[in-house]
Specification:
The protein has 294 residues and is mainly alpha-helical. The protein has one domain. 65% of the residues lie in helices and 5% in strands. Helix 5 packs across helix 8.
Length: 294
């Protein structure tokens, strides 16, 4: 389990480094071709950062409100509240706010920028469907997202996605609606090659950025599985929970694409979708990894 956690952390760092390198290359080409200097890249970064600040500080409230989650106290649902409380004590972290979503779907999610500002939500469907050890595995998984600062990591990635998209849009608008230097200014063939590379990057960069974001999201799911198993010392509990979740075809009606990556399982329950474009790794693979842990 420690090996799985270390492996996933290393891969996540690598993906973010690739992300940063990609935006630097795109910014360099845009600055060189448009002759706007590197102020254009700085502008895109600052604007995307400001837009993300709202999500960073208020995103948890928006996510909870959009899913119809209602806060509970210990007396409202002692079983769930005490389970969270016991695992929080074991993990040595602050107690998050606990929410319940009135839905037959089997799902759960955690949100919040750090352990001191965290919330954890469960659907009524998952509470009713899972046995004690199974629900405990789900709780440990979500608490691990909080303890591992996964929401903060994903916020950084979203900032980078926004910056890449803004740079691509800026390149498109200036190139095709006026402005920018002529290809001849770089010397014939070199200028033409730079223009072609810039246009290709302009077209594909938002797609590449989105794919990297999804890849980071999937790695954080693997990490939360491993960390949750380490917390309970019983990987089989979460493995059985994921099996039951995978057999359920009930989507979470209040979920949306902006919050889908937060959930323990794809809330849309779409079939025949490429894992490349999924916010979650295949459940079968996650179960196999859990059962391979000792």
């Amino acid at each position: 389990m420690y090996s799985e956690i270390t492996h996933n952390k290393r891969k996540t760092v690598l993906l973010i480094m690739i992300f940063i390198a990609f935006i630097m290359v795109l910014g360099y080409i845009a600055a060189e071709y448009l002759d706007y200097g590197y102020g254009a890249m700085g502008f895109a970064l600052i604007l995307s950062f400001i837009m993300t600040l709202v999500s960073y500080f208020q995103g948890d409230k928006i996510a909870l409100a959009s899913t119809g989650a209602k806060p509970i106290k210990k007396e409202d649902n002692p079983y769930v509240y005490r389970m969270v409380e016991n695992l929080v004590i074991t993990a040595g972290m602050p107690m998050p706010k606990v929410y319940i979503i009135d839905s037959p779907a089997l799902n759960a999610f955690a949100t919040g920028r750090d352990p001191e500002h965290a919330s954890i939500a469960f659907t009524t469907g998952i509470i009713n469907a899972l046995e004690n050890e199974e629900l405990e595995g789900v709780v440990a998984h979500e608490l691990s997202h909080i303890k591992n600062y996964d929401i903060r990591v994903m916020t950084i990635v979203i900032v980078l996605v926004g910056a890449i998209t803004l740079l691509a849009d800026m390149f498109f608008r200036v190139r095709f609606f006026g402005g920018g230097r002529d290809s001849d200014s770089k010397g014939g063939q070199l200028g033409a090659i730079l223009m072609i590379v810039g246009i290709v990057l302009m077209i594909i960069s938002p797609l590449i950025a989105e794919l990297i974001k999804l890849a980071v999201s999937r790695k954080r799911e693997y990490l939360a599985d491993a960390s949750g198993a380490l917390l309970t010392r019983y990987p089989e509990g979460l493995a059985r929970a994921l099996e039951k979740i995978s057999r359920s075809n009930q989507p979470l009606e209040t979920a949306n694409s902006a919050t889908a990556h937060l959930f323990i399982s794809n809330p849309f329950k779409k079939k025949k979708i490429s894992s490349l474009f999924s916010t979650h790794p295949p459940i079968e693979d996650r179960i196999a990894k859990l059962r391979g842990m000792l």
